[in-house]
C-alpha cells in the first residue's frame, strides 16, 4: 500500500516537473499561442475573466514580500492574460490581500497594471462577494464572468452569485483555462435552456392578463 502511494507521489512529481519543464520551453509566446487555440475552441466566451493574485497569478503571498523585490507569475500566467486581452475578453483582479500597495507595485513592475479593467484589492471578511459587487458595477452581469481562485471558500461564495468559478490547485495554467471555459459554456447553455423552459409560463400569464 505504502509502495503504491509512493509510486503515485513519484508519478505526480514527475508530471509536475515535466509540466514546468514544458512551460519553460514554451515561454510566454508559446503559452499565449496555445491559450489562443483553446479560446478558439469555444463559441461562447465570458465577457470578463477575474483572477485572484496570491497563489493564483503568482506563487507567493505578497504581504510576505518587500516592495523592493522583483515579482514573477506562474509559468502560464502572462501568456493566458495576453491571450484573453487579444481575444477581446476583459480581465480583472479580485484579491483580499492586506497589502494592496505591494500588490499594485508588483503589477506595475510586471507591466500589467493597465491590462485590467478593474482591480479590487482590499482585505475583507466576506469571501470576495464585496469584491464582485464592485466589479459588477462595470456593467457585466455575474453570469457572464469567469473566476479563478485558489481558496475554496471564495469559490463557494462567488459561485453562489452566479459566477462560473474555478478552483486552481497550483496557480492558473492552460488546463485550468480550458476547464473554466468549458464550465462557463456549459453554465451559459443550461441558463439559456432554463430561460426557454420558463418562457411558455410567462407567455401564458400574459395571455391571462
Ligand atoms: Mg489566493
Automatic annotation (TrEMBL):
The source's superkingdom equals: Eukaryota
Q: Where is the composition biased (Basic and acidic residues)?
A: 197-209
Q: GO molecular function of the protein, one example?
A: acid phosphatase activity
| InterPro entries linked | HAD-like_sf, HAD_sf, HAD_SF_ppase_IIIC, MDP-1_euk, MDP_1_eu_arc
User: CDD domains attached here?
Assistant: HAD_MDP-1_like
Q: Where is this region: Disordered?
A: 185-209
Q: Which NCBIfam families match?
A: HAD-SF-IIIC
Query: Which PANTHER family has this protein been placed in?
Result: MAGNESIUM-DEPENDENT PHOSPHATASE 1 MDP1, MAGNESIUM-DEPENDENT PHOSPHATASE 1-LIKE
Protein name (record): Magnesium-dependent phosphatase 1
Species of provenance: Anisodus acutangulus
